[in-house]
Write a structure and sequence with these properties.
Layout: H1 3-23, H2 28-39, H3 45-85, H4 95-145, H5 147-223
Helix pairs in contact: 1-4, 3-4
Subcellular location: Endoplasmic reticulum membrane; Membrane
Membrane topology: Multi-pass membrane protein
Family: Belongs to the BCAP29/BCAP31 family.
Length: 224
């Protein structure tokens, strides 16, 4: 592989590493310094011009690879057609050697086409991913620094505290209601027992009075 294709492959590896870094689910405290470190070189005009020149060169290599693939495919098709039209060609030279050589050149041309094409495509994807991640971080910072958001968070926290206090008060009231109900039941049981005892005592007194009355009547009748 030629030197410039080695450089293209190196650029492709760098883009893959950067894309993987941007795609990792990192917290904002870690992702923000990484974005600053990545964007620092691109803030210089010389670096931007150099990158644009490199991308233009890669695009030229991509177009050249596509043309080579088409040319080699036409050459391979022409070789197959000539062999079919003139069978005596086998006596003059070895057609398999030419066919293998053409297929090898087509393989290298296709490899170069895929290498340069994927490098250009990943450059576009990497640029768009960087912008989306930077926009996401800026929106998060705006959301966190918004006073309405902060006040709403404070209100939510206060409401949660009040709800917790209300729940505790409600639980206390429930316990008090249970204890009062228990005391009421105990008092009702005691009052019922006292009433029954008093009623039995009254019955006993009435029985005694009746017995006394009956005895007095009997004694008076005997005296007569």
């Amino acid at each position: 592989m030629a030197l410039y294709y080695n450089l293209v492959f190196g650029l492709l590896v760098i883009e893959m590493v950067l894309f993987t870094t941007l795609s990792l689910p990192l917290p904002s405290k870690i992702r923000k310094p990484i974005l600053k470190a990545i964007s620092a070189p691109f803030q210089k005009t010389e670096v931007n011009v150099a990158i644009k020149c490199v991308l233009v060169f890669i695009f030229v290599l991509f177009v050249d690879s596509v043309n080579r693939v088409n040319t080699i495919n036409e050459e391979l098709t022409g070789l197959s057609t000539s062999q079919n039209l003139d069978p005596t060609i086998h006596n003059t030279y070895n057609p398999m050697a030419d066919r293998s050589e053409i297929q090898a050149r087509r393989f290298y041309a296709q490899r170069n086409m895929y290498l340069t094409g994927f490098t250009l495509f990943l450059t576009l994807i990497l640029t768009r991913t960087y912008r989306l991640v930077a926009e996401l971080l800026s929106l998060k910072e705006e959301y966190r620094s918004d006073p309405d958001h902060v006040s709403s968070n404070d209100e939510i926290a206060q409401l949660k505290i009040k709800i917790k206090q209300k729940d505790e008060d409600l639980e206390i009231l429930k316990n008090q209601a249970r204890s009062l109900a228990k005391e009421y039941d105990d008092l009702g049981f005691q009052s019922t027992g006292s009433f029954s005892k008093l009623k039995s005592e009254k019955k006993l007194d009435l029985t005694k009075d009746e017995a006394k009355t009956t005895g007095s009547k009997k004694s008076s009748s005997l005296d007569e």
